């Protein structure tokens, strides 16, 4: 069988391979990368180690002397799940892009040259691969089937897959038929970025970076300071001119961010039209590089 050529196909194949070992979730990217590349390629990933460089989440580099490749990562990243995602991201570069370059440095935008379209494209592909490897669709479906959608539920999934909460919710938004949107804002109440499910896109609820968080949402946050804020009903006019919404929010003090999950349970969702595949991880690398989205 010939090797896959796309990020999605690689992600699906390696996830299957991992699960066939019977070890379950989370996918141990380290073990998988070392073993699979050793079996398949003449210049495998020979070593995976921490590199102690601040601001560079992950690196892939060729070691000419050893005739292999090294993946290294910032071991001081404290966000749960982020290191695992970074390792998967670097494995994605190895599988998809190693003939293009000898070194990949991945992390915050300020440090990196993501200006070119080509750079953004390969970053997005590595993220897509990582999401398919770590969060296989079938298993994700099983986890959420019949459950009330909530941050707790996604938190459970994030723990299962060892991914960040944001990356986990983005994965759900990519495939759900619900009308829902993730909105990340800073504490100054400006929206940093948002991502809509297909159905939410059709409803036109998208919030652009720089827009202001609705006043009533901020008011609710101020008057309900407990850590366990219940979801609230947001009337038509708050998140959409004519649609009511259910609004959940968590406050990330560590990163000074507000994370909103907005669902429109009553929104009429027209039949599926032929639209290009939504790809959260392309959107991310285009809109949110440097915004620490992996949190
Ligand atoms: Zn990268």
- Overall, the morphology is elongated
Radius of gyration: 20 Å
CATH topology group of the largest domain: Beta-Lactamase
Distance between the termini: 37 Å
Adjacency order of strands in the biggest sheet: 6-5-9-8-7
* Proportion in helices: 25-40%
Tell me the number of helical segments per DSSP (H or I, 4 or more residues long): 10
Looking at CATH, the homologous superfamily of the largest domain is PAS domain
Helix and strand composition category = alpha+beta
Q: In sequence order, what are the helices and strands, one letter per element?
A: HHEEEHEHHHHEEHHEEEH
Characterize the main sheet. Answer: 5 strands, antiparallel
Strand content: 15-25%
Small molecules (ligands, ions, cofactors) in the structure: zinc ion
How confident is the prediction overall: mean pLDDT? 88
Total DSSP E strands: 9
Tally of structural domains: 2
Mind telling me which CATH architecture of the largest domain this is? Answer: 2-Layer Sandwich
CATH class of the largest domain: Alpha Beta
């Amino acid at each position: 069988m010939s090797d896959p050529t796309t990020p999605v196909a690689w992600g699906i194949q390696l996830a299957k391979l991992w699960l066939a070992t019977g070890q379950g979730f989370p996918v141990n990217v380290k073990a998988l990368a070392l073993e699979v590349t050793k079996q398949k390629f003449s210049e495998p990933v020979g070593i995976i180690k921490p590199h102690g460089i601040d601001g560079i989440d992950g690196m892939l580099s060729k070691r000419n002397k050893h005739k292999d490749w090294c993946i290294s990562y910032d071991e001081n990243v404290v966000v749960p799940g982020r290191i695992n995602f970074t390792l998967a991201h670097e494995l994605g570069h190895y599988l998809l892009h190693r003939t293009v370059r000898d070194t990949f440095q991945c992390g915050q935008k300020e440090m990196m040259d993501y200006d070119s379209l080509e750079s953004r494209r390969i970053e997005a592909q590595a993220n897509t691969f990582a999401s398919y490897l770590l969060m296989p669709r079938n298993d994700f479906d099983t986890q959420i089937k019949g459950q009330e959608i909530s941050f707790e539920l996604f938190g459970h999934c994030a723990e299962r897959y060892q991914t960040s909460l944001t990356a986990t919710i983005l994965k759900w938004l990519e495939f759900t038929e619900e009308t829902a949107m993730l909105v990340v804002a800073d504490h100054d109440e400006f929206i940093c970025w948002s991502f809509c499910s297909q159905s939410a896109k059709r409803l036109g609820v998208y919030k652009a970076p720089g827009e202001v968080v609705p006043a009533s949402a901020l008011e609710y946050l101020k008057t309900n300071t407990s850590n366990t804020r219940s979801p609230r009903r947001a009337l038509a006019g708050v998140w959409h001119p004519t649609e009511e919404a259910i609004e959940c929010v968590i406050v990330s003090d560590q990163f000074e961010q507000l994370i909103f999950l907005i669902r429109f349970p009553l929104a009429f969702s027209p039949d599926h039209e032929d639209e290009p595949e939504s790809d959260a991880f392309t959107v991310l690398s285009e809109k949110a590089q440097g915004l620490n989205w992996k949190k």
